[in-house]
## 1
Amino acid sequence: MEVKTLKDIDLSQNPVIAQMSLNNHEQILFCNDNATGLKAIIAIHNTVLGPSLGGTRMWNYNNEMEALNDVLRLSRGMTYKSSVAGLNLGGGKAVIIGDAKKIKNEALLRRFGKFVDSLGGKYITAEDVAMTSRDMEIIKMETDHVSGLPENMGGSGDPSPVTAYGVYVSMKASAKEVWGSDSLHSKKVLVQGIGHVGEVLVSHLTKEGAKVYINDINEERLASLAAKYNAEVVKADKMFDLDIDIYAPCALGATVNDDTLSKLKCKIICGAANNQLANEKVHGEAVGKAGILYAPDFVVNAGGIINVFYELEGYNRERAMSHAEKIYDTTFNIIQVAKKEGIPTYVAANRIAEQRIESIARINAVL
Ligand code: NAD
C-alpha cells in the first residue's frame, strides 16, 4: 500500500480525522497537561493482530502538525514491522513534544504514564529517541503497559544481540539468493556503525570467516574493534568506493541515496538501521535497477521488537532468539515474492504484512 500524504486530503474535512483516514489509523489520543507542560500524541494505527506497541519519542518539533505527521508515520511503520515478523502485535507510537533537556521531569513522565494507562493496554510503550530506561521506570509507576525494560526491572534488557542475530540470518538468506549458498565465508562485508548492533554483527561475520570492513565516527571504538575482530577500518570518504559484496548500514538512515547508489559495488544491502532508503519509492526501485538485492530494513531489524514482544510473555531470551532466526525464512520468502511479482522487495514485504493482517481480521470476524 502506498503512503498517502497531506496533498490527498480534502481540506473541507477536519484535518486530523482526514489524516487518520489516509492510512487507516484506528485512534489518536492527544494528551495535554498545563501543570507539567506535557503535550503528547499517542497514535494507534492497527490492533488487528494484537495490542499496538511502539516506543515513545521525545522531540522538539517545529509545530504540532509535524509531531502528528511523525507519530502517524511511525505508528503505521510499527504495524508493518510486527506483522511481517509474525508477531501478535499491532502498530502504535507516541511522541512527547518538547526539548527533553529542558522539560522532561518526573511529573511530566508520570502524567504521560497515566495517559498511556487510560488506553487500557491497547497501546504499550517502550523506549525511543530521547527516552531512557530510567524514564521507562518512571512511566511504569503509572501504568503496566510498558515494555523493553532493563533486566534489573524484570525486563528483557538490551535488544541489540537479538537484532544483530536477525540481521545476520537475513544476510545469509540474501546471500543464498544471490550466490546460491548462504555461506558468508570470504564475503567482503562493510559494516557502517559498530555500536550495539554493529559490533555483535561483526562478531557473527568474523566467526563465519567473512572479510569485514568497519566504519564509524567514533575513532576510539574503531581502533579497539578493529583489533578485537581483525577487521579493516575504512574512512567515510572511501567507504562507498570499496569493492565489497555486502553493505550493512548499522548507524543511521537514508544512506541508500542517489549519491551512494552511483558508487556502491555491492550485491546486497542488509543492515539494522531504520529507514535506509532516502526515498522509499525512488530508491526502493533504484537498488534493483543497480543490480543490488535490498533486504527491507524493517524486516531485517525486527529482532528489537521481537525481543520486546517476548518480555510481555515473561521474558525468555532463547525464545526471542529462535523467533529472530525466522527472519531468515521471512527474508527469503520476500525475495521470492518480489521476483515472482516483479516488484521491489520493500513492496513485497508490505504486501505480506498486509495479507497477514487481512487474513487474521477475517478470522477475528468469525463468531
Ligand atoms: P548505537 O547508537 O549503539 O550505534 C550506532 C553507531 O553508529 C555508533 O557507534 C555511532 O558512533 C555510529 N555512527 C553514528 N553516526 C555515524 C555516521 N555518520 N557514520 C558512521 N557511524 C556512525 O545504535 P544501535 O543500537 O547499534 O543501532 C544501530 C541502528 O540500528 C540504529 O539506526 C537503530 O535505530 C537501528 N536499530 C537498532 C535496534 C536495536 O536493537 N538496538 C533495533 C532496530 C533498529
## 2
Amino acid sequence: MPGLVIVGAQWGDEGKGKVVDLIAEHADAVVRFQGGNNAGHTIVRDGEVFKFHLVPSGILYPGKICAIGNGVVVDPQVLTEELDALRRRGLDIGGLKVSANAHLIMPYHLLIDHAGEAKLGEQKIGTTRRGIGPCYADKAARLGIRVQDLLDEKILKQKISAAMEPKRLSLRPFAKDPMLDLHAMTEQYRTFGARLEPHIADTAPIAWRVLERNGLVIFEGAQGTMLDIDHGTYPFVTSSNPVAGAACVGAGVGPTDIDHVWGIAKAYATRVGAGPFPTELDGALGEEIRAAGGEFGTTTGRPRRTGWLDLVALRYAVRVNGLTGLVITKLDVLTGIDPICVATRYTAPDEASFEEFPYHQSVLHKARGEYDSLAGWQEDISGARSYDDLPESARAYLDYISDFLGIPIVMIGVGPARDEIIWTGAVELPRPAAA
Ligand code: IMP
C-alpha cells in the first residue's frame, strides 16, 4: 500500500504540514504536487519553529527524498532562500529534488498578480500576491518557463522574451522597473539555475522507483478542496487543483498508484481572502477562536476568517477527494466553548434548504449554515494521547463528525507540538511501524 495522498479538506491551513511531517518519518519519499509559495507550513520540532512555503514537509528528516513535482509553480528566489535557511540550521537537504518540468514564477507574474488585485478593488480575490495565478495562466497558454530552462541561457532569454511580449500592455506601468529588464532577469534566473542545478531532476521516475519496491510515497497537497479551481468556490479560489486527483497529474503517477487519501480538517473552519464562507462567525466568538487558534496566515500574516465546522462542505470534500480517512486538527482550540455548533445543511434567503454543497455561485454566496448544537468540554485535552483520554463530549463531537461523513478519523491534533496528537487506530496506517 505505497501511495498516500494528503489534502486539505477545507479552505487550506488545516495543518497538513504537521501531519505530513509525522508520517514522513516512515515514508520513503514526499512529493508536493501543486501550488507554490502561496502555501505555508509550520512545523514545531523540539520547540523549534520551522516555516516552509515550497519545500515539502519531510525535509526535516536527513536525506529523505522530498520532491517538488511538475505540478508545482516555483519561485526560484523563494526556493533558494528556503534552502539557504535550512542549510544555515545545519539540515541535510541532499534529498531535495525539484522537477525539471515545474513552471517558474517570474518577476512579471508578481507584478501582474498585484496589478490584477488592485484593479479588481472591492471585488478582489485576496490572493497571496505571489504570482501564482499569472504563472499557471502562462503554463496553460504555453508561454511558461520551466525549471529546466534555467540551465540554457539562450533558451531562457528567448522564452522570457516570448512570454513578455503579449503582456506588454499590462506591464506598461512597470516599464521602468529594473526587475523587468530582459538581460538582468536572464542573468538573475541563470544564477538561480546554477544554485538549484544539483537538485533539478526528473521527479516522476523517483516516485515510480519507490512505488515499484512497495515503499511509501506521500503526495502532499497544498491549500484545500474549497480553493480548487474546478471544485472550489470559483472565482474565489487558487489557480491549481488541490484535490486528490491532481496528485497523479502533478507528480506523474497513475490513479492505481494511490491507495489512501486522507483529508485534513480543523475542528472548526477558517478561510483567508474573499469568497463564500457559510459558517463564518463575525462576532466575539469568531475573534475568540482566531486568538485561541493563532489564526493568522503563515504566508501573508493576514487574520483568517473563522467559523463553525461546516459538514456540508466537508461531506463534499469527502466525495470529491474520495477520502479514506480524516484527520481532525486543533481540537484543543474548542476547549471552553460550549455549546459547539456544526453546520449540517445550508439555507438560502428564500428559505430553500441545501443538504448538498450548492454548485451555483449566487446561492453559495448567500447560503448560511443551519446548525446542530453539541456539548463542549472544559478540560485541558493537550495531554490526551488516546481516544479514551478525551472527555466524553469531545469524543461525542468526533463521533458525530465521523458518523455524518461516513469515514473514520485517523488522527486528532490536540496541540501544536509534534507529540500532541492521537492516533486513533481506526485505519491501518500505511506502515504499521508508524503506530
Ligand atoms: P493565490 O493562490 O495566491 O492566487 O490566492 C487565491 C486564493 O487562495 C486567496 O483567497 C488566498 O487567500 C487563497 N490561498 C492560497 N494559498 C493558500 C493557503 O495556503 N492557505 C489558505 N488560503 C490560501
